[in-house]
Design goal:
This protein has 185 residues and is an all-alpha fold. 84% of the residues lie in helices and 0% in strands.
Length: 185
Amino acid sequence: MSLSKPIMNLVASYLQNLYIHPIKTKSITSCVVGSAGSIASQIISGQSLRLDPVLAFGLYGLLFGGTIPHYFYGFIENVFAEESTAFPLAKKLLFERLIFAPFMQAFSLYTLARFEGKNHHAAMKQLNALYCTLLEANWKWLTLFQVINIAFIPPMLRVLFMNFVGFGWAMFVASKRRQQTQKKE
């Protein structure tokens, strides 16, 4: 019982901040989760900890990982409202999987490379090498989580839910980027 009170206080504080400052809260959460995913990926792979990918994933989460999904989920809720369209869940999911996911995958790969200090040419080379593999994996492994997210998670908590899923995804992306870099060397 003694452990549950601090946890409940933390959850209550997080939800309060999510309600009062949704973008700031989602951005900070994305920063922490992205950085943690990068660290976990490096630890699991047995490599020594490199700071540049950790900072890249953290900065990406802070600047884009909370804001873009926040506005995206609000957009699909308005465009595909339950009362104004037939099959809203299917339409939201198709829009997310076929339009948003491919764009975000390309944007993420390029931006992460640039945040690591790579020049435009190197970032584009990495994007071209990894894009199709990661997008296919995204469609294969994250579609079920997006169905759960869109069908059952309240809109205010959707970015948080995908951040938890994103922890594993960040580990996967970091390992693929690391493998691609090692092939180059």
